[in-house]
Each structure stands twice: as structure tokens, then as C-alpha cells.
């Protein structure tokens, strides 16, 4: 087990390194560098900027050094000092802009994962046990629709319904009276009341997919001989289901946990944007539209780190669940 | 598992058309056994009801994408200054006396000021009936840039016809959606071709070369799949210079969309190649002295082409959704190019939702297209292996 974890850990480190290079390339991609932009900003504010000043600034910030050196400077700043650079549009350090927002994003992703599996596992079992029942057809239909509707459109539709039918707004993460209030129990409860909408929206596509997987595996497993044997010994039906076929059927859907997390994080910015959540989503989009490369780069790095670490954790979970995985067998 | 013979020991042919299934005559059995692979696939595909419905919907979309100039009552940019944010008009076939009339008609609309909110509201003016005419002269256009014409499938001679309402500039939303269908579908198709080529080449190299090349490519694919790609493509799309022409942006976005789907396909091609390489009939062909290219194109390709087509049809929705997502937030296509995502930009906020709900109509098209493709993909997956049960 220790060997397995170590191996996975090393893979994770290599992936993070590769990721940081990709993010750095995206930062360098738009024409012009930080010094150019800063000069442009000062000019537009009416300050006289000489060519000499730009060169000086470029030298001070190390922007005139070769690309690999700039990369090392950038990544060591992040790793050693937690310094992601300065936001070009807001002129404060990126870490201050992102601040607690990234926490909301992580929380949202975790809540969405909980929803995905919390819904998919019981519904999948039900659909398999009551195959071709009205409920099964209902969930199959819902599943198709869920997979066809991108999460941001679903968010829009929910918003539409909440505005038109219930005359309230499901957007945001806090009620107005808690917006500026310090954290308290009431605020936390209010937060949870708002959190479930975006979490559910993000979970829908994944839930639909996992229901189908769970149902298919359950259907395969529930007619196998070991189930018949257990039934012949007089085991109660519910206990039997949960103890044998359900446990086997759990493996393939836990194996996709990493992908689910990736898909959720990928869809999150758009959903948060539509629902106007105070997390990183809207910030990410505005930073992209402003070409605020340090800010968007930092967020891309954080999103991807979340998924890579999440995949690492899900690999370990799978190894705990399924001994074949930790002994390196292909399942 | 139903057996392939019935109680009397007669052969049951599961994929025969329904009408034949009661008692397959010898002639029909013969037909089954001598049918070509594609015929078998078609029979099997036809049994999948939803897939058939999906295929019909896709056919309609295809027609729309080919000739929106003719089908749309207006040009995509014709502005009706009197109908800014005008609501959709209902089509009536019963006149005021409840009598059935042909052609169908819409009522004229008048704007009235709401005395409380001072907002303009639209009221149906039931005294004016505007008949919808077919093959009517309207905005001039050049079909495929070649054939100049001004005949539209339907339209009105006097007044106006806005089936899905008007947008902020009074342009006809229904016409714009039809034009957007062409752009959105074409992006999907071109993106699919790019994905297809990438997947085929990279997967092929991986499967053929084996060894460290295979290993490197597989690790790379794993890496791509473990990072959230949509934000990454969003970052790339945001790096496009703002002064680029809409056409250049269109092609770049297509390229970016094409990058979305290739990993899945590359894996499929690789695993198929690896398993086929060991298959007996390939070994037989090799022993018989077939050249490599003959083995690949004559024996291997036909056996996994159907799987690739299935994978392509399954990844098409992702292309459409990717484009819609990018354009929706303003990072994808830019006006004057109209796509479903560009149209949905207007429906970004709560205000638009509350006041002008018809701006949502493009969503229906997006969902329909994606659903249709999922169904067709499912049907093709079943049909891909016509000999299986």
C-alpha cells in the first residue's frame, strides 16, 4: 500500500510540474508583457513614461531574462513565497484578489461530488433492481436530459424558473443581510441554504452518467451465482443487495471520481458566473476578458491543482476499496 | 439472453425488420445471411426508436444548416426598429369568429406605455390580421454565395413576422437562430474532423510504435484528461488578439474546439490496434504475405471504422457545448458571426430572463441537437457490431 501511494504521489508531482509549465506558457501567450501594460496604463492616466523607465522596470522585474529563467522565477515565487504576481486590472497581489474565493470553489466542488454520489448510488441500485419500472424509465429519461444540458444552461433555466415562478433569486451564496456580516452560525446555515443550488446544478451531468454506470454494473452482478448462493442461504434481500452486488458495482464509479471532479471544476466557472456566486468563477471570466494573465494563470493553476490532487486522493480511495488496484493489477 | 432458435427449433433472427419477424421464410433467412454488413447495421439501427427520432431531428438540422437563407423569413441582420425586444407572435389558424382560416396569420402588435412603470409593453392588435404567405419575396440573399434570390419559404408582405420575438436591435430572433444553426453545426463538424485526424494519427502512432513512444503518449493523454480542459481552452481563447477578424477567430475557435475531443478517440484507436494486431485473421493475412498497408486498410480499418464513427458521434455534443460555452461568456465567436452561444449572450443575466424570456429560445435548439446526437450515438453503438446480440 505504501509503495502504491508513493508511486501515485510521484506521478502527481510530475503532473503538477508539467501543469505549471503549461500555465506559464498561457501567461506568456498574449502579446506584450507586464512592463508594456504598466506603461500603457500610466500613459492613459496622463503620466509621462520614457522608454528608459520601461526598460528599467522590465529589468527590475526580471522580464528581460530568458524564458526558462523567467519560469523558474515565477514558480519559485509561488512555491517559496506564495506570490502569484500582481493582478494587472486591480493592481493588488493576486493572492489578495483570490483570497477566500478559492475556498468557496473547493467547497462547491466537494458539495457537488457529494451530491453526485449521494444521488447516483441509491438511484442506480433502485433502477437496476426495479428494471423497466416506471421509476427506472423516469430516471433514464432524466439522465438523458441531464447529460444533454450543459450545467451553465441548467443554471440559467433554474434562474429563469426561480425568477418567473417563485419570484425570488437563487443566485449568490448569501442572503442580503448576511452579505457583509462576519461568519456566524446563522450565516453558515444561510450559506448552506444557497450552496445546494449550484452544487446540484454542477452534479447533474455527473449523476446522470454515474447512474447509468451503476445500473449497468448492478444488472450484470445481480444475476451472478454468488448472489443466488447468498439468497439460497436465506439472506434478507436488502442486506444481500448492499453487501454483495452493490459493493462490486461501487468500484467502477469510484474509479471515475477523479474525472467527475475534473468535469465539475471545469463547469464551475460558468455556473458561478451565471448564478453570480462570490467564488472564483466570475473572477476567472473577467480576468480572461481583461487579459489579466497573472490572475487567470493563478486560477487555472489552482483549478488544475485541485483536480490533480483530487485524482490522487480518489486513486487512494479506490486502492482501499479494491485490493486488485493496489497490487497493480488492471481492472 | 434469448436463444436464437424458437421453441420449434426454427431460427429466430433478432435483427430482422419487425414486419418479417412472425415467421421468417427461407427467402428472408437467406436475405439475412447474405445481407451486407452495412445493411445489417441499418436494420439494427432502425430498431432503436430513439436513435431513429434523433436521426430525423439531425436531418432537419442539416437542412436548416444548408439553406437558412431560404427558410428564414428575414436576413440575420435586418433590423425592425419598431420591434426592439418585441415578444414572439403567436401563429393563429382560427380567426376571431373561431373559423378555420388558411393561410395562418399573426395579429399586428401595438406598443403601449405601462402607466405605472413607464415601460413599453406590447399588445396584440386583433383588428389587424397579417396572413403568412409562402414563397414570398423578402430580403435579398445569395445562396451559398452563388445564387442570388429573394424568395423565402414563408413570410409576410405587410407588417412583420417574428416567431421567436426580436432582440435588442429588433432583429428577428427566429431567423437568427436558423443562421446560427449553420455556424454552430459547422464548428462541430470541422472540430470533429480535427479531433478525428488528431486521434487517428496520435492513437495510430501510439498503437503501432508501442514501447516508450506508446508509454509517453499514454501518460500525456492521462495528463490532459486530469486537468479541467474547458478553463484551459478558455484561457487560450482569451489570448486571441482582440483585433482579429471574426473569420480568423472562427477558425481558431474551431481549432481549439477540435482539441477538446481527440484524447478519447486516440485511446480507442490505440486499444483497437493493439487488440487487432493479435487477432487470428490479421496473423493469417500476414502469413499469406499481405503488405502492411493492405493489412491496415483492407483488414484492420473496416473492422474498427464503425467504432470510430460511434465515438465521433458521441463526442459531437461536446463540441457544440464547448462552442456554446465559449461564445456564451464572450470568449468564443464574436458578432457579427451568429452562433447559438452568441445568441445566448443576450440571456446572461436575470434582468433579461425576467423581461425578455424569449431570448432563451436558442437553448431549445442546443438541447435538441445534443439529445439527438446522444440518441443517434447510442443507436450507432448498438449497430456498430451487427452480429452481436
Question: What would your notes on this structure say?
Answer:
- The complex is a heterodimer of chains A (331) and B (389).
- Chain A is an all-alpha fold and 331 residues long.
- In chain A, 76% of the residues lie in helices and 0% in strands.
- Chain A contains 16 helices and no strands.
- Chain A has helices at 2-28, 34-44, 51-61, 67-81, 94-98, 101-129, 134-148, 151-164, 185-221, 225-232, 237-243, 245-255, 257-275, 280-289, 293-321, 323-326.
- The model of chain A has no long low-confidence stretch (mean pLDDT 82).
- Chain B is α+β, with helices and mostly antiparallel strands and 389 residues long.
- Chain B has helices at residues 26-34, 37-47, 49-66, 68-71, 173-209, 211-226, 229-238, 246-258, 262-277, 280-287, 292-328, 340-344, 350-355, 361-383; strands spanning 92-94, 100-113, 120-131, 133-143, 147-155.
- In chain B, the strands form 2 sheets. A 3-stranded antiparallel sheet of chain B has the order 1-2-3, with no helix packed on it.
- In chain B, a hairpin with a 3-residue loop joins β4 (133-143) and β5 (147-155).
- In chain B, α5 packs antiparallel against α6.
- The longest helix of chain B has 37 residues, at 173-209.
- Chain B starts with 25 loop residues before the first helix and ends in a 6-residue tail after the last helix.
- The chains are: A mainly alpha (331), B alpha+beta (389).
- At the A-B interface, α1, α7, α8, α13 and α14 of A face α6, α7, α11, α13 and α14 of B.
The outline of chain A comes out as globular
The average pLDDT score of chain A comes to 82
What is the share of helical residues of chain B? 40-55%
What is the count of DSSP helices of chain A, taking H or I runs of 4+ residues? 16
Tell me briefly what this model is.
The complex is a heterodimer of chains A (331) and B (389). With 331 residues, chain A is mainly alpha-helical. In chain A, 76% of the residues lie in helices and 0% in strands.
